[in-house]
Structure formats: structure tokens, C-alpha cells
Amino acid sequence: MQGMTGHMAVATAVKNSSVDVVAAYPITPQSEIVEIIAKFIADGEMDCEYIPVESEHSALSAVIGASACGVRTFTASCGPGVALFHELIPCASGLRLPIVTAITNRSYSAPISIWSDHIDALAQRDSGAIQMFCESNQEAHDSTIMAYKICENKNVLLPAMVSLDGFILSHTVEPVNPLDNETIKSFLPELDLEYRLDSENPYTIGPVGGPNIYMELKYQQEKAMNNAMGTIRKTFKEFEEITGRKYDLIEEYRTEDAETVILTIGAITTTARLIVDELRKEGEKVGLIKLKVFRPFPKEELKKILSRFEKIGVIDKNIGFGSGGIVAHEVKSCLYDLDNKPIIKNFIVGLGGRDVTYDNFRTIFKLLGDNNSKEITWVGVNL
Predict the structure, then answer these.
(1) Do 189 and 282 share a domain, yes or no?
(2) Its catalytic activity (predicted)?
(3) What pTM was computed for the model?
(4) Are 345 and 311 in contact (CB under 8 A)?
């Protein structure tokens, strides 16, 4: 075990995964990931082409070009940077390029905020990228490695985004057991793209797609995203076999006899576990559902799990203005056809990096028990 920031954990995973090309543009709080990788390369610890560019849009453009040539690629960004390269995510997905991007979650402006919520990643939910959220630095390290195996699978071939909460994980030191290069090699095969740019055998990628072929290509992307569900499960299982560390699309905590549960993504899950433990000591039948994989959305599994409970509180560290939190939208949509629907309430927390505290979670569980509380509640707002 080593003490590592979330950024060091991700950068070490990239180094030991034999990544060939990294495109880099700095933005707070993400900058440190690509700075660490630059040092790895300068110190001779990593054999990789490092491309400094003038914007996040150019960073993703650069790795799209490199990935199309058949090499393993990486970039990273956050907040406004993710918004800037939004145009390129559907391109990477439509070209079926297995690019891994780390998202150090940051709020959108205005007002200017460098602190963390999840809107930057969740705003990309329909862009065609696999999306995983991390609770800890160990999970950020492991998820980066697993992302390559998932998105490089020949039945998937889609980009992947690995999200970790800015500052809360990125700059905080936690114990991490990193996988070395040899262990990763035994888990992650060399990239072998069937279709790649080759000057000896030239062909065109990404040409104009008229109405006569466009829908068919989008349908193939949809099939690939659906294929990713089984690939993710298999990859998580294989990773557990070599490390002993278990991950799942959805993780349950103390739900065996629970009547009321909360659903979380990201680092706030750790705090949520503590309050569940305390309320259990007080005799409350409460539990926790952690959603790790947001795209592909595990709707059938989630539907099966959530149908067991009477009341569900969906915690959103984001806001879809005018209609509540983005995760709550997804949860409600997968439960719409249940005969006996659980009561679902949505809680908006932590925007702009505001701390989501022990007392906030106590308030949330109290409101879940109040039949007169609102469907959507902002918790921790000083108004």
C-alpha cells in the first residue's frame, strides 16, 4: 500500500497500462494528472508520446487521431474543459475509438467555480461514452485500468470516462495498492484494433454519413453500449480474481431488511455509509445503494433492486434546471412501470463543492420519513 492522491492513482494506472499517446491541457483541478504523467515520461519511467495542446477540444482531437492509428490513448479534463470537448465525444464514440478520459469533476460557471460537483460528467450522458464514478482513490486507479479492457473489447469499442470528485479525491492522500506493469499486462491484452489508419493500406474514417446510413451506424453504437454491460460485469469479475477487490454496476450496503434506502454516486458514498451505520444502531431500517456505472445505465438490475424498498432517496450532486437531478431522472424512468412503485424523493446536494455532511444525510433520512416533504429538496442551502 502507498499513500496516493487520486491524481497519482490515475496517473500510475495510465503509466502501468502501457499507454502510447497522452494529450494534455491544464485546467484546475485536473492539471496534476497530466503533470505527473509528464514527469513519468521525463524521468524515463514511461515510454509515451506526450502532446501539449492549446485547448481541451484539441486534446480530445489529438487522441482521436492517435487512437484511429491503433494505439492506446489517454487524456483528462474537468468542468468547462469537458464542456469544450463535448463536440468530440460523439465523434470518438461514432468512430468506435476506445479512448479513456479521466474527469476530475468540477462545477460549471457562472459564477466561476473550481470546486466539485458532477454536472460536467453527467452533462455528457448522451454522448456515447461509457461512464464510471469512483468512491475512493483505489477505485479511481482500478477503474482506469478496467476502462481500457472494457472499451477495447471488440464487441464494445467505445470511449470511456472515469470520474473522480475534484479535490475531495484528486488532491487527498489515501492508501492505494497500485497494480504493477506486469500484473496489468496479464489482465489487459495489447490493443489490436481491426480497423486503423495505415499509410500502406489507406482508407477513410469519419466520412459524411447521409440519411441512408446514419441510423444504422447509430444503431450499432447502441448495440455496442448494450454489449458493454456484459463486458463490464466480466471485467469486474476478472479484476476481482487477480486483486481481491470487488466492484459491481450497483453495490448494496446494509440493505437486507431495509425499508428506506438512499442512492449515491461518487465520493459522498463514504459519508453516507457512516450515517447508515449510525441509524442502524438507533434501530432504523435503512440502507445504501451505490451506483458505480452510469452509462450504460443498468436499468433492469436497478429496477430489480429498488423494487424491494418502500422509500428511496436519490442523491444528486448536480442539477438539471427545472426538473431536478439527473440521476433521479434515470432512476424514475426505470421504475415507471412497476405496479407498486416505491416513493422516490430527490435531494440536491454539494453543488459548487459545498461539503455534504453527516448532518445533511441525517436530514435526508428524516425527510424520507416525512410523507409531507417535497419531491425535490435542496439540502444545505442557506436561504
Answers:
(1) no
(2) 2 oxidized [2Fe-2S]-[ferredoxin] + pyruvate + CoA = 2 reduced [2Fe-2S]-[ferredoxin] + acetyl-CoA + CO2 + H(+)
(3) 0.97
(4) yes
